[in-house]
Structure formats: structure tokens, C-alpha cells
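Need Wall-associated receptor kinase galacturonan-binding domain-containing protein's 3D structure for a figure. Predict it.
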Amino acid sequence: MMLRQAKLVGVGLITLLHVRFLSFCAASENQPCRPSSCGDIKNISNPFRLKGDPLGCGHPDPAYELVCENNRTILYGKYHVAEINYDNYTIRVVVAGLEKSNCFSLPLYSLTMDHLDRYKYPDEPCKKTEQNRVFWQSGNLVFLMNCPRPIFDYNYIPVVPCNRTNATFSSSQPYAYALVGGSKQVRDLPYSCTIGMTVVTGNLKAVSEPSNLSSSDLQEKLLMGLQLSFLSFRCHECKVKGRWCMPNFSNNTIQCHDDDGSNCEMNMISILFIIQIILAFKIANFMIIIGGRFVLGTSSLLGYLIYKFQRRHLSLDDDIEEFLQNHKNLQPIRYSYSHLKKVTNNFKNKLG
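Structure prediction for Wall-associated receptor kinase galacturonan-binding domain-containing protein:
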């Protein structure tokens, strides 16, 4: 009896422990992901994730993955994350290599707008829409260049690079300038200058005209970094309803619509159909030209051969007539009966 009670108590304890273990596992699975941190960035959470975070934390798209290196948060290996604001869905990034200094600090990399212009489906043209854009940014492209002589143009901002040994600025071209992309086209650059690097700054609308910028103003803009909007990640709220999403970056809201109105797939089919028609027309035109040239060439050859044959025939007639003229045998010759009898051996031989 005692043994039976002991067995029941043991089974009960095992069952209780098993239930508590399952409850703990379930609680762990249902527990939301805790924010990660790296250096000054303490609130790395959805849609961002830090490399090494548990699966399921943050957005699964690799574009939202951040890396912690030397206690600094890095985006795409080229930008230092300075701030993440989840209230207005923005992340501020600074190009790696920039430092506050009396001289003009240069970034480590040459960057353009395209480095941040990423989509979730880069290989599908019809999905390159605002709802699939990873980041949205508004900024200015700046060209850093070397020149062998001074430029007297207020659009070119003189700069004094911190590192003259850098390959970006050559000692053989001692004058360095910065040109904000919106003020002039690249094709207008002086022929003697060479572009050493391109960088992207935050929006320069606060300054009345790019020509009013100084080297220190531009350096400050670069150090402030770029403010990128990741509002588009909220478009999953529309997608789960089977609707199309339109982010409004001015007031940080999204609007769901039943149709994007673009009919991109139909447009692509129409474009392909038009391309096929153009190709067919080109091929037909090519065949007509080739066929026309063949017919024209054949006709010309036949005409030439007929002409040559007629000329040859006329030439033979002329030769015969010349022969007859030379021998004066154009008039009929009269022969006597006795002469004919003699010539034909008493009419035994035929003449002609």
C-alpha cells in the first residue's frame, strides 16, 4: 500500500514538473523580442534587427539588419547609425570616416543616392513601388573634385582636405572644390578638373542657395548625416488585407487602396507586344530591302547581258557587211550558162 502511494506521488511530481516546463517554454515562445543595443543605440527593435538576434526578431529582409562593430551600429557596412526614431519612423546615418575637424573630413567611401535606393524585390520591375521601398530619403549629391588651377565660380566651394595623401585628392592638382549636384550638371565641370569622390548630404533646403554654402556648412551637413524614412515597413498592414499601400512621408502615415492603378503587369505585356511588333516591322523592312536589292540586281544583270549580246550580234553583222564592202560583192553577179556548166562540172557539183 505504501509502495503504491509512493508511486502515485512520484507520478504526480513528474506530471507537475512536465506541465511547468511546458508552460515555461510556451511563455518563452510567446515573449516578444527584447530590443537589442550597440553602443549609443539602445533601442534596436522591429523592423530592425541586430546581426545575431534570434530568428523571428525584426523584419526578415536583410536590408533591415544592423551590425555591431567596435561598439558602433553599422548599416550596409558603410553608414554609422546615429539615431533611430520609432515615433516618426526615421533612422539617421552618417557616412563612415567623417570626423569633426578644422579641415574638411573625407568619408571612407564614395557614395551616391543609389546606395540607399533599395527595394524588397530588386529583380521584379513591377514591384519597385513605394510600398516595397526599404528606405526613403531626400538629399543632395555632392561632388568632391581636384583642379590644377583656381576656379572663380561661386558654385564651387573651396575645401581643404584633412588628408592630402588620400588618393581622392592628388598633390598634382592642388585645388580642391565641392560642387552640390543640384547647382550644376556634371557635364559642366571644367575639363581640367577630375571628380575624386561623391557623397550624399541631408537636404540643403535650409540654405537659400547652394552658392551660399561654405566649407564648414557643408562639413556640418555631412556630420549631421542622412535621415532615412522606414515608414514603408508598415505597408504589411495593407498587404494582409490584400490591398495596395501608399506611404505618405510628409505626415508619416500610410493609406490602403484597392488598386495601385498602375496595371504594371499589363503595361509590361503591352510593352513586350509593342517590341514584338517593332521587331517584326524591322525584320519585314529588312527583308523587303534585301529582296528589292536582289530583284534590282538580277534585273540589272539580265539587262546588261542582253545589251552585251545585242552589241555582239550587231558587231558580227558589221563585220560581215564590212567584209562584203571591202570585196564589193553587194551587187548580184551574172554568170553565163557555159560558165555555170564549166564550174559545176557539167552540173554534177552543187554550188553554195
